[in-house]
Amino acid sequence: MNIALIGYGQMGKEIEKIAVSRGHKIVLTIDKDNLNDLTPDNLSKVDVAIEFTRPESSVDNYKKCFTNNTPVVSGTTGWLEKLPEVIKHCENNNSAFFYASNFSLGVNIFFELNKKLAQMISPFDDYSVKINEIHHIRKLDAPSGTAITLAEGIISNINRFNTWKNSETTNNNELPVISFREGNVPGTHEIIYDSDIDTISIKHEAKNRKGFALGAVLAAEFLKDKKGIFGMSDLLKF
Asked: Structural domain of residue 122, as residue ranges?
């Protein structure tokens, strides 16, 4: 399979290693120094584009690919307010889009555990809930896309919450999501349920970027020759 890498930072380089090890070819690499190379002619040689860039540039990247009928796998976060626009552009061009806030198999298992635990605790108002997330100092968005997905999983299963807030809060209807940026941490997420009697917590701690990169390549393999909008639940069949 011929792959375009849009974004060639640490994640892009890790994706390249795994893609090549699985027999794929990187035929186009786009980074900040060669943005003008994202052209219809270059995209015509590509089976799937994998996009890990910045929220301010990602949507334009998607549209250029869709217009050329190039499927896109994206792990860029911080742009989801434009998701309806992206879906419409993808569908209007009969293309394909695979988005995940996190491509790690372990994190996606964690998403399911999070929803199940929220369902079980929902009847018991004695427990306060909060999410802590830690990432490296170069991560620009806060909270992380993964933390937002976890928050949405809790909100959809515990009736007293109707929104999340990226800070501590005294509003019982707001779920606090606390963000820390330190060192070179790939990503740590913890959900804490606390009462006067006990504390229940679940935690996922990434050791490196390999799990994210492998998931992105698996998503690209899944997306080839497909049309429509997909996510990790389609790939993993949870």
From this structure: 105-205
